[in-house]
Design a protein that fits this description.
It is built from 19 helices and ten strands. It is α/β, with parallel strands linked by helices. The strands form two sheets. It has a six-stranded mixed beta sheet, with helices on both faces. A four-stranded antiparallel beta sheet has the order 2-1-4-5, covered by helices on one side.
């Protein structure tokens, strides 16, 4: 599934599932709001006060118009209090509105921060199998849009939905008290028709938005995947092929975006017609009242002012509702990542690993992704303290899987892995990885400085220790040759460095960490002879007084191991020291002979190796 598009997050279910999704999303969000419940309450109080002031402005304006109507020198007799009240209400509306914004800003930003942090932490806790089946670009885009959706949802609710609802309640109450019931009935009827139309059309349009999001994520994933593999694209001259794949998703996104825009125009026109009809009916009623002398000119101005105050945000409310639906879709995609199960997790109250000797043992370990395809079967061996155990065998024999089990990226499906008698499943992962040092076959560096990549082994280490680790790994002369020295940026995944330079950075990291157990996963298999010699010197610095597991292709690099295990098809078929295995004439001897005759180790990986004799009991 790696490199495909099946791993991108699927859109939420349509129909009834959307309402359940909304409730689940809101339940996930509420704990973040509860942290600042005092601020949220103060923001809501400010909101209500701002709307009370806003609704009070037309009432005062009505009294001013009535006082001025028909009086030549009305400016003299208009109560000064009305004009003062008008000014105070205007200022109060702006003042309480700004207070609401300031108070609620911390609530919004903290909710976004907490939610994004929770998802990011959960992603790091998910098993390796999850990350092998997902595209990083799609997941990153889901988090980005989901975080933006949280801020949008909260802001729209506090700054648009809640104020509009408060204003609608106040205006309809005033209309009901001051005028005939037909005014209130017309206002409420218009609102209900408007809301129903908006809900129905927006639900229909949501399908286009979700498809747009899906195509956007897939296009982004394709772009990220292609750029991360820039060199491979160049090697095969597939620039046009990559552009074509990217454009295929952009074309689908474009078509969905056009349908989305057309449906938006239909929605806007329908909303405008409903509002225009309701407003016209109210103004006709008000004009009749003035003509019949049952309403004053000030009442006409009051109704008109209420219409402007009410329908202007109501028209915007349609846009707000659409954006909130989109935000909920984006948030649901992000929060759906939290539903991914933690198949490798610490037990409740798990203790830290207590290291006494550093004795590592695999006890009849089995492992599979699918029961019909076992990767490891009955793996049983021990790495005594201060000794080196090497594992060799053809590609696909399960060698690297042993490293992943020891680091606890996976848990065995049979047997157990222990350090000093403690099952790795019973202790905390943090304490386990604290005592492990891994030098992988292909170290992947962060797009940061050389110094930051070395210091990653122990981020709180003083600079002197970081530079000493680089010197021991034979990196210091290379660093001195660079114009920016340790501040040189290594590029995406360290692409600006050679294989040997990246390996030495990995060794410097491990030296800085000073682990009790070392894991070398084919750390020199991709290097030339000169680079391998330098890297081997660095590895030799790490191994003394540590329990060491070496995965190797080149048998010459592990001749001095205390024990060598030969794996074929997920099983150990031979074990012993180098000299004894060569003399035995079995699978190891066959590999050794091939590597003496073949200049490239990749040719020395036959898949038909068989043990020459029964294994000695350990």
């Amino acid at each position: 599934m790696r490199g495909g598009f099946h791993g991108s997050t699927p859109p939420p279910d349509e129909g009834g599932g959307a309402h359940a999704s909304f409730r689940a999303t809101m339940r996930t969000l509420l704990p973040y709001l509860w942290e600042y419940r005092g601020r949220a309450a103060l923001a809501l109080v400010s909101l209500v006060l701002a709307k009370v002031a806003n609704v009070g402005v037309p009432l005062v304006l009505k009294d001013i118009v009535d006082a001025l109507n028909g009086k030549a020198h009305a400016l003299v007799v208009v109560p000064v209090a009305l004009l003062t009240a008008y000014g105070i209400l205007r200022v109060s509306n702006a003042l309480f509105g700004e207070l609401r914004d300031v108070v609620f800003a911390r609530v919004t930003r903290r909710a976004v921060r907490r939610a994004a942090l929770r998802v990011f932490k959960h992603l790091h806790a998910l098993p390796l199998q999850f990350h092998l089946g997902r595209q990083t670009g799609a997941v990153a885009r889901d988090i980005e849009r989901g975080s933006r959706g949280i801020a949008m949802l909260l802001n729209f609710f506090v700054f648009n939905i809640a104020p509009t609802l408060v204003e609608i309640a106040l205006v309809t109450s005033i209309l009901l008290v001051k005028f005939r019931p037909i005014f209130t009935i017309t206002t409420i009827g218009t609102l209900l028709v408007y809301v129903a139309f908006t809900l129905i059309v927006t639900e229909w349009r949501t399908v286009f938005r979700r498809f747009m999001n899906d195509m956007d994520s897939r296009a982004n994933s394709q772009a990220v995947d292609s750029l991360l593999n820039y060199e491979t694209v160049k090697y095969f001259g597939n620039e046009e092929y990559e552009v074509g794949r990217y454009d295929a998703f952009l074309e689908k996104w474009e078509n969905a975006a056009v349908r989305n825009q057309v449906s938006l125009a239909f929605l806007n026109v329908g909303q405008s017609l409903i509002i225009a009809a309701g407003a016209t009916m109210l103004m006709v009623l008000a004009a009749q009242g003035v003509a019949n002398h049952t309403m004053s000119l000030g009442d006409l101005v009051l109704v008109n002012a209420f219409l402007i105050q009410l329908y202007t945000p109501l028209h915007f409310l349609g846009f707000v509702y659409r954006e909130i639906r989109h935000a909920l879709v984006d948030m649901d995609r992000m929060f759906s990542l939290l539903k991914e199960p933690l198949t490798v997790a610490d037990k409740p109250d798990a203790p830290a690993l207590a290291v006494t000797e550093g004795r590592v043992r695999f006890e009849h370990v089995g492992f599979f992704y699918h029961p019909e395809r076992p990767l490891l079967t009955d793996i049983d061996f021990e790495i005594p303290p201060r000794s080196t155990v090497a594992i060799v065998g053809p590609s696909g024999a399960g060698k690297s899987t042993l490293v992943r089990l020891l680091v606890r990226l996976y848990d065995p499906t049979a047997g157990r892995v222990t350090i000093d008698g403690q099952d790795l499943r019973d202790i905390t992962q943090k304490s386990l990885r604290h005592i492990l040092g891994v030098v992988p076959q292909e170290p992947v560096l962060f797009n940061d400085t050389l110094y930051a990549n070395i210091a990653y082994g122990r981020p709180d280490a003083p600079r002197t220790e970081v530079e000493e680790a680089a010197r021991l790994a034979h990196l210091d002369s290379f660093v001195r040759s660079l114009p920016d020295g340790y501040q040189t940026r290594v590029g995406e995944r360290g692409l600006k460095l050679s294989g040997g330079e990246k390996q030495r950075v990995a060794i410097a990291r491990a030296l800085l960490k000073d682990p009790r157990v070392l894991l070398f996963d084919e750390a020199t298999s991709a290097l030339d002879a000169a680079s391998e010699r330098v890297v081997q010197e660095g590895l030799a610095l790490l191994a003394p007084n540590r329990s060491t597991l070496v995965i190797a292709h080149r048998l010459a690099t592990i001749q001095h191991a205390d024990q060598i295990l030969v794996m074929v098809g997920g099983r150990i078929v031979e074990r012993g020291r180098h000299r004894d295995l060569v003399t035995a004439g079995g699978a190891y001897a066959h590999l050794w002979t091939l590597q003496q005759e073949t200049p490239h180790p990749a040719l020395a990986e036959p898949n038909n190796l068989k043990p020459a004799q029964p294994l000695p009991q350990q």
